[in-house]
Write a structure and sequence with these properties.
- The structure is a single chain.
- By secondary structure, this protein is mainly α.
- It has one domain.
- 36% of the residues lie in helices and 6% in strands.
- It is built from six helices and four strands.
- It has helices at residues 40-60, 73-76, 84-91, 121-124, 133-153, 163-168; strands at 81-83, 108-109, 112-113, 160-162.
- The strands form two sheets. A two-stranded antiparallel sheet has the order 1-4.
- A hairpin with a 2-residue loop joins strand 2 and strand 3.
- Helix 1 runs antiparallel to helix 5.
- The longest helix is centred in the N-terminal third of the chain and has 21 residues, at 40-60.
Length: 177
């Protein structure tokens, strides 16, 4: 089959897991629990960063086909990771854990994403169209570093975790044990 009929014949590079599980910074980190809200200045900076990223993605000419294929992580054979900053941002509007009985993203309903505004970096840079794989990889790495720098700037502990599993966990761990 060619790429037009079998979009998932390729394997995306594992750019969802660039970091080791923990980052330790030279400046002291505030103790955090899964209930800690994202500091408002950090949330505003993350929103601005996401807007900038979305503009850069649009400038590439890539677009979402609105089929929801990429959100079927099991079928695509990838696992989406997100930082504690991104998880805390999502948890602001969804503080309760989602039912643990599924491995699908809880925002994936009827084959579509229902949380486009707060979706993490990995979702913003993953598209079905393989022609954009390399430039999207570069954008991912660039903005991944910037989100990490924001966490350090605000003393918000950085940890990279499986996005769906953490949202579906009864007590998501956002701290270093």
């Amino acid at each position: 089959m060619d790429g037009a009929t079998n979009l998932f014949a390729f394997r995306m590079p594992n750019f969802f897991a660039l970091d080791p599980p923990f980052y330790y910074y030279s400046k002291p980190m505030r103790p955090q629990s899964s209930c800690d809200p994202l500091p408002r200045p950090l949330a505003l900076q993350l929103e601005a960063l996401y807007q900038e990223l979305d503009r850069e993605v649009r400038s590439l000419g890539v677009g979402c086909w609105l089929r929801g294929d990429c959100c079927d992580f099991e079928r695509c054979e990838h696992r989406l990771y997100a930082s504690t900053v991104e998880l805390a941002y999502v948890k602001e509007t969804h503080p309760e854990a989602f039912p643990p009985d599924s491995r699908l993203c809880p925002f994936w309903k009827e084959g579509k994403c229902t949380e486009r505004e707060r979706r993490p970096l990995g979702c913003r840079t993953y598209f079905c169209d393989t022609r954009y794989r390399e430039p999207l990889q570069e954008l991912y790495e660039k903005y991944h570093r910037r989100i990490s720098a924001l966490a350090e700037e605000h003393g918000f502990r950085w940890r990279y975790q499986p996005f769906v599993a953490t949202l579906r966990s009864a007590e998501p761990t956002l701290t270093v044990p």
